[in-house]
């Protein structure tokens, strides 16, 4: 599950990669969790807060809605904590990791940093981060209150980051285009998704797309859909329990799921890479009828395409249900200490409070990271948010070694089939082998430390 309308892939010697389980009921356990989630961070640890004037810096990439909200939250936080000043610094997305790799080791970086969860293994192995302070973020409390997918931020037994919000993927559909094609029922199975996509596809006399029935962009969300959605739905597994071995080829399910994804472009010809720049742009401008995208897209559509007549539905399923999930999380660099560490911990605790999670879902569209907040009726029954939340029980977050490289390998494999006519079986076998090498190299280096 990342983050974004269109972003550049970051490269470089130390560039790190980009890249919800349980809809509770209103029972006694949920009431307890709700009380915990409602507890204000300032009530929780006032004795830990510094009584000295201190300034800390918060970094995130330039995503307008998030930048605006963080500015609003900083003002609120500083009112609650008059001795702490927070400065927000933003960088263009394609420069973000480069700035971190250059400035953090030199001690010139942030005191709190916003990171995609798929970057964490690289950041931790590079020595950039410290474990979250246990007095502010006890492991037992995290694992009781947050969705299990957050465990992807637990490395070598310690949590290195904590999210305000989480994401999962769902089916976005254009209501006008479905009505034009006389489609009255949404697809709920793999087979139905193919049939509906064919009916929605429109081409001109030269065979060029006028409307994609299904937006096909492996480098956007579809590589996530494969790992944490299609693969599991077909009965396969992603990684071994120790996160060291790729299990895609251990059963026929891996190849079946890969073939299914490839066939949308190669066999069914309902979408193609790069149409109207990318999948999200094609959908938001009305040139793609169906797109698989994240809950984070809700905020972008609301702001930039308020007249788009669209709906959201759970992902179609096959032998079982499974949905990809992901999150951006906040962490503390390794060299932050003393009063700055206390202030950073207070700010980080504030960013995970119930009130902030509610503002985040309402202004950004990402889902609350704590179960008790997400499962409130106002979100579960929401036309747009509800389909995402309904999938949290069946969602998974892949443990990335290097999200950029893993995504690149996946996109390269699809291009081998689409552009170079390589047999699907050969492209899949090469993909598994190359991905496994990334894991072998990472763990070999980690074991030496």
Describe the structure.
The protein has 449 residues and is an alpha+beta fold. It has two domains: 28-167 and 326-396, 3-Layer(aba) Sandwich (D-Maltodextrin-Binding Protein, domain 2), CATH 3.40.190; 169-323 and 401-448, Periplasmic binding protein-like II (D-Maltodextrin-Binding Protein, domain 2, 3-Layer(aba) Sandwich). Helices cover 43% and strands 15% of the residues. Strand 5 and strand 6 form a beta hairpin. Helix 3 runs antiparallel to helix 14. The protein is globular, with a radius of gyration of 22 Å.
How many whole angstroms does the radius of gyration measure?
22 Å
Q: Could you please say which CATH topology of the largest domain applies here?
A: D-Maltodextrin-Binding Protein, domain 2
Helix content: 40-55%
Question: How many separate domains?
Answer: 2
Subunit organisation of the chains: single chain
How many beta strands in the DSSP annotation? Answer: 16
Give the termini separation. Answer: 29 Å
Question: Briefly, what is this?
Answer:
Helix content is 43%, strand content 15%.
Keywords:
D-Maltodextrin-Binding Protein, domain 2, globular, 19 helices, 449 residues, 2 domains, 15% strand, 6-stranded mixed β-sheet, alpha+beta
